[in-house]
Target: ACT domain protein
Amino acid sequence: MIQLLRNIWKKNNIPNMEEFYFYLGEKRSRLDILINKIKVNLEKERAASTLTIEEVLKKKEEKRKEGKNDFGIVIDGINNTLIRFAKCCTPLPGDEIGGFVTKLTGITVHRKDCPNFHAMVEKDPSREILVKWDENLIETKMNKYNFTFTIVLNDRPSILMEIVNLIGNHKINITSLNSYEVKKDGDKIMKVKISIEIKGKAEYDYLINNILKLKDVISVER
Model:
């Protein structure tokens, strides 16, 4: 409204409020026209203010419905809760995932095809919760995820060194490595359990495709 009055003053060369009153008193402007202009202006301001408030509330509601965190996970309807990735299936960005609410550890994120996840949901469906990857956060923060997989192979000299060198050539950090012998159909084979830090499923798939090309590698278990 103040801006409207200033516009009237400027348009009619009125320097101050006293001159404005005099201007009205001289009836050089009809008071009813001025009042109507003020009403229209106030209604516009009120409409704009209401719209802004609605937009703010809408954004707050959307944020409440999609709780976000630094793990790259969006959780349906929950903010600031404890999240952990299931060790049984170690989900990576790119995997289809599901969440399960636990009594002590908050929300555990599993791969959708994880047998343990299916068993828990079947036992208590009320604890399943919708979760998804926050693609924007994953791209901007460049998070790396701890991931463990097992290579099944025929033992031979230097095979472990070849695997380690291959992973290093992919610029992937190894956090632990353990190997042990097992029997399969009466024959001895080796299993190598490796933990790495990796960005997502696409990087993992590329790495595994190259590992499977190595001589004496039988399979890779995730």
